[in-house]
Amino acid sequence: MKKAFKIIGITLLIIVALLIAIPFAFQGQIKDIVKQFINDNLNAQVEFSDVSLSLIKSFPQAHVNVNNLVITNFEPFNNETFATVKDVSFTMNITEIFKTTKEAPIVVNSITVDEALLTLKTDKFGNNNYDITKEDTNKNTSTETETSSFSFSIEDYQIKNSALTYIDDVSKTLIHVTELNHEGHGTFSTEISELDTSSEANVSFTLDSTNYLSSNPIKLNALIALDLKNNKYSFKENKGYINDLPIEFQGYVQQLDNGQDINISFENPGSDFKNFLAVIPKVYSKNIENVKTTGHFKIKGLIKGLSTDETIPNLDISLTSNNASFQYPDLPKGVKNIAINTEIKNTTGQVNDTYIDIKTLNFKIDDDVFKSSATIKNITKNILINAHIDGVLNLGNITKAYPIELDHTLTGILKAKLNTTFDMNAIETNTYTRIKNNGSASISNFVFSSQDIVNPIHISQADIEFNPTAVSLNNFKAKTGQSDLNATGTINNLLGFLLSDNTLKGNFNVTSNLFKVSDFMTEDETAPTENKTTSDTESLKIPAFLDCTINANAKTVVYDNINLKNVTGKLTIKDQQATLQDMKSSIFNGGLSISGDISTKETTPTFNLNLGAHNFDISESFKGLELLQNLAPIAKLLQGKLNTNINLSGKLNKEFLPDLSSISGDALAELLATRINANQSQLITKLDGALNFIDFNKLNLKDLKTKLAFANGKVSVKPFDLKYQDISISISGSHGFDQTIDYNAVFNVPAKYLGSDINRLIGKINDNQVNNITIPVTANIGGNFTNPSVKTDLSSGISNLTKQLVEIEKQKLLNQGKDKVKNLIGDVIGSNKTKTDSAKQQQNNTIKNVLGGIIENNKTTDTTKTKTKDAVKNALSNLLRKKEKDTVN
To answer: Whole-model pTM?
Structure first.
């Protein structure tokens, strides 16, 4: 016995070893068979990473697994991915793997598809990307089986964790099926059989931009009778679910040469109104198990007819409910008197003749009754809508009666009585003649709050009147924070804005007693991250959907620390650009005018503005306006009035303030009756120390005009002239928005202001030409406004002036000496030759005394005095010797 067990064990071990080893021997053959099957049957590019064979995984059957399958289309969908599959598994009898491709085809018993992503597409020309099977050119069945590598005798199949997308550009249909799990059990090889199926998925369905299902869970457990000879599939025992609404099906689908013959009826088996709540997606309806309901709800439908390329089956689907109600157990209010009567019909088989008739949709919350009805036709081409609304709705009761989660709290009373008829093409193209509105709507005590705004907006009253051409805003009163708004105007395409992607067009007149800009701003950038409404990389944007003109009139507008009085002007908003026209205001005891535009169309907002100021109080305006502080920082020291006109363009930062490094433009400034507060500036203090001949407190700036140009973060000042008493001053240079300074001031200073030594020289010379001498003194101003540096050439100027005065005095003395010598010599030469020796000697002494006096009175340097004396003595000695010689002769 022990030996027998040993033999059995060795035999089993050999069998297991064979089961493990055989797949390696046949794996190449299986891969070739798979490739041949693909090439024989598919007109597409197919790739897969590997094919594996196992005799153990599905023992006693063989298990073939294809990994990472990718199918890519040829023209007209060239290089588009048709399908990707993580794994495709086949099972078959072990004997099948020993067949060669020349023998009978391999018979497959089951298929499992895992994580498949499939895209079915029909383009606008009617081409289908799923027409990838090769046409059968051989009608002989026996030959067909000989040329095919596989034959399917499936008993089980399964699709797991997969998704499908269907896109039809012709009918404008879009279907998304996600989380698809489906399995079937049966035998397809017999002519009459049954298939037991189980399916579940989330389905989204959109037709011509209208979304009818949005990730709605669908379930279906169906026993389907298969008549493979006639291609007819009949529903026997089945039950499906749309969300939590059970639906039972009866009927069949038969495949024909030109389409499908469909005859299916369905209805919900019960009639409890809770079934209606079950239709609503759970994300909105929440848990409905404990909801109290009264009344009934019934959905019933018939789909019957041919589905072809040109037609659809006739439709007759109804949803009805009468005198129903519901109330959630944890909510204080319920919804009563619910009446629903809706039909979806098609009687012609033409898809565009399908229409929806909402005959009644009424409900009541507390004492507020809301009634409505509508018809929707022409749904696949140009949707035509005719709707009627008549009712009152307390917005605050919505969340008290229904478990809807709103991003912000709503309160207020909405009243509406409106009839409207329009087609979507008219909405999209703003063809107002085809939009018929008649009625009115109002809202009172409406409060809107959101994280995107600082203060809730309280609309005390808003009255809207609808007419065929426009919507009139007859009354609008609102308040937020400390700001109040009153408005009237017209809205040209309210429906186009609400129902399509159109812009909101209108013209409005807005008045306000107090408008604080901070009441409308988002939270401060320093707030915690979770409270921020924009990311660090985002900038504020002008809404792209606005196309309107606003005529504004506000008594007071507060921006930061600036109070604007009597603000009037026109604001035009279009294409993410706001244009200011003739905006005027009173500020800083003067007048301000603004025109220009701000655009947020690009990633970085830009602006282009013209600012005019008239009779501004300089000290107040330069304290209040950061822009003026950067353009002319020195002006904050001035007292008086200012006229200026500034042209600016540049970029805006995330806070919607000018990016100073990007600004370019120019300005023209005029100072009126202005004086300077010299003791309030380091710059003036240092200038005063370097130039003690000027009292800056007495500097007259009246009627000063200058031009400024700014670019690349710098302000360049064109040369301008000032006058201080009899000193003329010329100033030019530039400063940066970073407060750096680079200026030159040239002072043309009369010589009399340059010290006592200079004044004594001038007094001795006593000449009008000397009294009018001026020298240029240049002050180089650098550093920055808080720590300036001042360098002058005053010392070198005084030194040069001193030399100039000495030279003038020397020349004057020499000229005086020459004149006296000439006179003296003339007297000597012209005297009586009969003079006695004593008289001649007396005359010579007189000449020497005169010249000596001249020389002694010369106050120049000792070297100059000596040279002058020697020169004069030599000249006189020569003259005297000549005189004596002439006398002797």
So the answer is: 0.58
